[in-house]
Design a protein that fits this description.
With 397 residues, the protein is α+β, with helices and mostly antiparallel strands. Among the domains are: 30 residues, no CATH class; 176 residues, CheC-like (Chemotaxis protein chec); 57 residues, no CATH class. The protein is built from twelve helices and ten strands. The strands form two sheets. The protein has a six-stranded antiparallel beta sheet. It has a four-stranded antiparallel beta sheet with strand order 7-8-9-10, with no helix packed on it. Strand 8 and strand 9 form a beta hairpin. Helix 5 crosses helix 8 and helix 7 crosses helix 8. The relative contact order is 0.09.
């Protein structure tokens, strides 16, 4: 009978157990709803304990991660991390090294620092322009070199502040073009100085109108002075003549290279007491390519790369160099078919006699003329005169 009473007790307690299970199932839901509530809002009748807000925020974040995708979270980059990834630095200048994607994009650019003599040429240009512009304007002019940098030609055209005057010039010996940009401040300053403007007053700037013929003519005269100084600055490196080709107002009409081509940008500052402006000189690397070997050499003072000690050592070693000299008896023109059909034992007849002159050549270049003879048991050539009109063969170099 005790067993039966136990069964009855178990049957009577089963509903209570079911109600307890239901209550236990509802308890997490209530707790989950309480946790999911905003951290700043507490349920009615509850008092906020220290640290409850932080704990509620952590539990809410964990529940959101589980609801989104099985516990994995995606980290969101802030603005500083995005700038570092892309290589942008708002606080840095143009001279700082590029990093990130910007470094990859600009890796194809050639740095002007690989051409040591080019910076010396531009320093010389600054000194020459200071003197020539003083004589041109009869004013106290100071020209300073702001920056030398490498830039893509398309990026430079897009960065030109308008209105401005763009002068396209041609380098005759280099068979290419360059670009000079004069900003509006310098244009109005030059016009004001040359036409007798008062000192101590800033040049008036008129917006919304194109440059007049008088303004273009005065700026053209200044550009011719700058190009003459540029020619003198390049003379120690190479004889190059720079001629003004045309003057443009729209940068699209001043395209002298492809947008992706690299170029050297030189920014010059011209100050005339309280007036002045900026002149920018742009030379594509294609223009400098013919004299690139000269610009690569190192320099010593004003010698522009010449080292007398090394030149003397090189000349001494060249005089000791052994060269092979060929004695050409005669040349017989033959067709390619005849040469291909030559056989062993075949005789070629030369149209020369024992006293015919013989040409001595070195590397395919005729140097001397002589007569054939014999000294002891060896065939010798007696030199009589030199060859006139020496011509280097096409493939000798």
């Amino acid at each position: 009978m005790s067993t039966g009473s136990d069964d009855v007790d178990m049957k009577e307690n089963s509903p209570a157990d079911g109600e307890g299970a239901a209550a236990a199932a509802e308890t997490p839901k209530a707790e989950e709803g309480a946790v999911a509530a905003p951290a700043g809002e507490q349920p009615a009748g509850a008092e906020a304990a220290p640290g409850d807000d932080a704990a509620a925020a952590e539990w809410g974040a964990m529940l959101d991660e589980k609801a989104e995708g099985g516990g994995t979270s995606e980290r969101v980059l802030n603005q500083d991390e995005i700038d570092n990834l892309l290589g942008f630095d708002a606080a840095g200048g143009d001279n700082q090294d590029r990093t990130g994607i910007q470094a990859i994009v600009n890796s194809a650019l050639v740095s002007y620092e690989r051409l040591p003599l080019l910076e010396i040429v531009f320093d010389r240009l600054v000194r020459l322009m200071t003197t020539s512009l003083r004589n041109f304007t009869s004013e106290t002019v100071e020209v300073s070199l702001d920056n030398i940098s490498s830039i893509r030609f398309g990026d430079y055209l897009n960065s030109i502040p308008l209105p401005a005057i763009l002068a396209v010039f041609r380098a005759e010996e280099l068979d290419n073009y360059g670009l000079i940009t004069v900003d509006s401040n310098l244009i109005y300053s030059i016009v004001d100085v040359l036409l007798g403007g008062r000192r101590g007053t800033a040049a008036m700037r008129v917006e919304g109108r194109p440059y007049t013929t008088i303004e273009r003519s005065l700026v053209q005269r200044m550009l011719e002075v700058v190009l003459d100084d540029l020619k003198v600055a390049f003379e120690p490196v190479a004889q190059v003549k720079f001629d003004l080709d045309r003057i443009e107002i729209n940068p699209r009409f001043a395209a002298i290279a492809r947008p992706a081509n690299a170029a050297v940008l030189v920014k010059l500052r011209v100050d005339m007491e309280d007036r002045g402006g900026r002149v920018e000189l742009l030379l594509p690397y294609a223009t400098l390519e013919p004299i690139r070997e000269l610009l690569l050499q190192m320099f010593m003072g004003e010698k522009f790369g010449r080292d007398s000690i090394w030149e003397g050592h090189l000349a001494t070693e060249l005089w000791r160099t052994n060269v092979d000299i060929e004695a050409v008896l005669d040349e017989l023109p033959m067709t390619l078919n005849a040469v291909m059909n030559l056989e062993v034992g075949q005789t070629l007849l030369l149209n020369v006699g024992p006293d015919a002159p013989i040409e001595l050549r070195c590397g395919g270049v005729g140097l001397l003329m002589g007569r054939m003879g014999r000294v002891g048991h060896q065939v010798a050539v007696r030199i009589e005169n030199t060859v006139k009109n020496r011509q280097m063969p096409v493939g000798a170099l």
